[in-house]
């Protein structure tokens, strides 16, 4: 197994989905910038994921299972 790559846990799916949408979906990104809580409600994100996204700091996001590629993008 490669020590630099990991598969995100299933529990982090919604967090990674949100990060992917922020990177790839201009409409979602605009909704998130206009009203972050409403955009996170759309995805049903857990409170700890919401807090990590608000802070948008790498280590807390990765600790919750965010894929590093999505965090850096």
Walk me through what this model shows.
The chain starts with 12 loop residues before the first helix and ends with a helix. By secondary structure, it is an all-alpha fold. The model has no long low-confidence stretch (mean pLDDT 90). The chain is built from six helices and no strands.
- Share of helix, binned: 55-70%
Q: Give the CA-CA distance, first to last residue.
A: 24 Å
Number of helices: 6
- Mean pLDDT equals 90
Keywords:
single chain, 73 residues, mainly alpha, 6 helices, 67% helix, 0% strand, globular
Layout of helices and strands, plus pairs?
Blueprint: H1 13-24, H2 26-34, H3 36-43, H4 47-55, H5 58-63, H6 68-72
In a few lines, what is going on in this structure?
This protein is mainly α and 73 residues long.
């Amino acid at each position: 197994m490669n020590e630099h790559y990991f598969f995100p846990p299933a529990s982090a799916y919604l967090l990674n989905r949100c990060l992917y949408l922020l990177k790839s979906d201009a409409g979602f990104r605009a909704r998130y910038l206009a009203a972050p809580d409403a955009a996170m409600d759309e995805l049903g994100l857990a409170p700890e994921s919401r807090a990590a996204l608000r802070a948008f700091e790498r280590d807390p996001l990765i600790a919750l299972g965010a894929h590093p590629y999505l965090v850096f993008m």
